[in-house]
Amino acid sequence: MMRKHSKEYLENLTPYQGYEILVEGNQRFVENLSVNHDHLELINQTREGQYPFAVILSCMDSRTSVELIFDQGLGDLFSIRIAGNIVNNDIIASIEYAVKYVGSKVLMVLGHTECGAIKSAKAGVEDGHITDLLKRIQPSISKAMLKDEHDHMFTDNVAYANVENSLEEILTRSSIVKDMFEKGEIGLVGGVYNIETGKVDFFKNLTKSKKKQQLAAKV
To answer: What residues pair up with 111 in beta bridges, in sequence order?
Structure first.
C-alpha cells in the first residue's frame, strides 16, 4: 500500500478520486465521525515534503476551516483563504504552484452561507482597502439576481454566483490551470458550505471520472 503522503500516492491519484475524498470527508464531518488524526505522526510523515491532493480557495471566515470541513489532516490540502474567496494575481500564482509544481489534482473554490464580505458588498460598504475587495464581489450580486432562490440547495444565490465567478476568473486568467484542466490533469469543483449544518453543496463538479475520460477519448 502506498503511503498517503508520498509523491507516488499523489501521482497515482486521479482528479475524480480527489473529489471523492472531499465529499466523503465532509460526510464524516457532518455525521461527527471524523478520523482520528495523529498530528505528531503526520508531522513525521510530512517532514521531508508535502503532497496535498487538493488546493482550496475559501473565505477567511473563522467558521470555514477546510481541514475540518473535509476531515483532512496536516499535509492533505493547500488552503488559500481570503475574505469573500475572491481572486487576485497572488492567489492565481499560488494555485498554479499547487497544481503544476506540487501536483495537486483538485482545484476547489468554496463559498459559504452568511458571508460577511458578501453582506458588506450588498450594503455598499466603503472603508480603506476593504473598498477594493468588495468591488470584486459586486458582479456576483448582479448575477445572482438572475437566479431563482430555489435553484440551489441553500438559499444564498450570491454565495453560489461568487464561487462561479472565481472559478471563471481563474480559468480566464491562468493559461496553466486552463491547459491542465482541458487535458484532464486536474479537476475543478465549486461548493458552498452551510454554516448552520456543516454540509457542503458540491454544486459544480467539473471533474471527470476515469471511465468518463476514457469514453470521451474514444469519441
So the answer is: 192
